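Input (ABC transporter domain-containing protein):
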Amino acid sequence: MSKKWGVKMEIKMNSISVVIKGKRIFSNITDTMNSGDMVALTGSSGCGKTTLLNCLGLIQPIESGSILINGKDTSKWNDKDKTKFWHKYATFIYQDYGIIEDETVAYNITLDKSKAKSKAVKNILDKVGLNGRDSELAIVLSGGEKQRIGIARAILKNASIIYADEPTASLDSENRQIVISLLKECASNGAIVILATHDDRLVSECNKVISLNKNRN
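Output:
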């Protein structure tokens, strides 16, 4: 990861608001994120951090306002456009790891058995501290190791945008620091890294913080 990867991206929120089942989750959020930004979405429990993350990932629709990606209004995108965006540019690191436990570590990174033994996968496993474990079943991994699999997927993909939902939740201090360092390196290599988190240590490493507590009404 010594070279820049992904393509240059900009995400712009213009006064976005979300209402779910008649309840206003947040309103009038305006901000801009660019390649190299590490962005923390913060706030008290239930304030809408994950909802905003999903909006930025085009998973959750917004009620009003607009989300522009490289100047294009995503409200005009159809399912094919969104699928293309995820295929080419974005990846999601899940709080519950998103691991297929009865498959190998290498397969969980590539999701393609024909690529699971490639040199690139071995190099990435070394990078995330899982070298030599490519043939092990993912079920034997610890929580921190499973979280590193999600980051390894982003590195293999050269993802331009990385979305992560509570990526350090329930990790011990050692794995927490490994995950934070890997996410920082992804940002330094050109990705926009967007994190829904309540981890103050992780927030302190971000160059941009968007607090949802100020946008509840």
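The mean pLDDT is 92.
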